[in-house]
Prior knowledge:
By secondary structure, the protein is mainly β. It has helices spanning 8-29, 48-61, and strands at 31-33, 42-46, 63-67, 70-74, 77-78, 83-87, 91-95, 120-125, 128-133, 137-139, 161-166, 169-174, 177-179, 186-189, 192-197, 200-203, 212-215, 218-223, 226-229, 234-238, 244-250, 253-256, 259-267, 270-281, 298-304, 309-321, 325-331, 349-363, 368-371, 378-390, 423-426, 428-439, 449-452, 455-464, 474-477, 480-485, 497-499, 504-508. The strands form two sheets. The chain has a 24-stranded parallel sheet that branches. It has a 14-stranded parallel sheet with strand order 5-8-11-14-17-20-23-25-27-29-31-33-35-37.
Amino acid sequence: MQLIPVTGKLFRVLCLCCLLMGYTAAVKAQWYDVTRYGAVGDSTTDNTKAIQKAIDACAVTGGKVYFPAGKYLSATIYLKSNVTLHIAAGATILGHTDTKQYPYQDAGIRFYGDEWARQSLVFCKDQQNVGIEGSGTIDGQGAAFVITTSKKPDRYRNRPYLLWFVNCKNVKVRNVTLRNSAFWMQHYLGCEFVWIEGLHIWNHSNKNNDMMDIDGCRNVHISGITGDSDDDGITVKSTSPRITENVTISDCIISSHCNALKLGTESTGGFRNIVVSNCVIKPSAQLTTIYGKPAGNSGISLEMVDGGIMENITINNIVINGPQVPLFIRLGNRARPYMQGAPAPPPGRARNIHLSDITATGADETGCSISGIAKAPLENVSLEHIYIETKAAANVSLHAPVVEKETEYPEATMFGSLPAYGFFIRYVKDVRLSDITLRSPAAETRPGIVVHNTTQFTLNGLDIQTSAATPAAMYISNSNNGVITNSRNAYPVKRRLLQDDASANIKADATAQ
């Protein structure tokens, strides 16, 4: 046998080949197929232990836990650092239907609900570089968790989340389909650097079926979601003193029987630096409801009622079709402590809120409201390039008081049919409306805009449909320091602006006379 002399160059090539072979083997070793750990995708075998074995093995090297096609029944599994669950097309993780199979978890963060919301199908706490991906499905079989009481908080107990991430960093949930949670679909609590992308969500199997809840998190990116839920849709919360901040939400199609896009209601820490853009809100495909209405209660609700701050909120390029109330902005004073023994929070502060380029059709007769309270007005609010089409309301008195309901749960319909069919504005400091078009397919007798107990306001370029029975296109009461310009197309109303004697320093050009 002839020996080939090994030159320096050949030696380096051989070494490189060996390294590549080792690298390829290492890459393959980072995929952990759950079936090799005993999982059986027959929809009846309990795979909890087998899946956890695969996760534990994967956590040693980092990598992906692979679910091939099949239906894998499981109870709580614990996701660990540097592990991604990869659910292939045709694969489904089925949540166990026995609530006793879901151990109670300690989140390690005190938050409103921590005494009863303590279970999850996928639980991940204090981990980093974790994720869920693939073209498969996670189905919680939530309808199996029957509620036997209406008493609070007992009615919330023993219904697991589908996904629960707590105090984690670098979380990525992408492209999977999520279905039928027994409670909220996803709860991200106190996490940092979160990417939620390309999800398909259906959540109509139980009460409290929120689509997702971002709670006390920082640096969150949500995009490409197509979701339909019985309860709230994409929801930003603050159930603890941790503020939710630096959040982008874009390119989503959302349906909800309640509130499609919502900040609140819990606001202990508050919300800061939130941007929402390029989204469509449409009626749910599920016509029967547990809560709310088939087309939804509200399109966008910004609610601040348990203290905290809400500032630097920008929402633009939104199409809203169907919900009762397209836009609802509320600063109230429910003042609910986030945990037992905590002091009641003082009224919060809401400022720097900007909405633009919104088209809303199919709304009912309620009207939109932008309302603070006397002790805590909203500050620096602007709306521009807005088109709203609503149903007409009958027998609504312009001068009947709108009960303030300062301490009540915030809901877009909480005030009943408002004295304005477009926007009812109360307790706001520095509010600006520009290029607003308001329409109703029937004869509307209410003004389009009512401004009450407000200081420093600007109304510019308003196009308000009226009828011969409308007292005025705009009504200003007990407000001051306002400017009204460039109003148009208020015919056939006899006057465009009506102002009470308590209002002062209101400047209106000829178009508002």
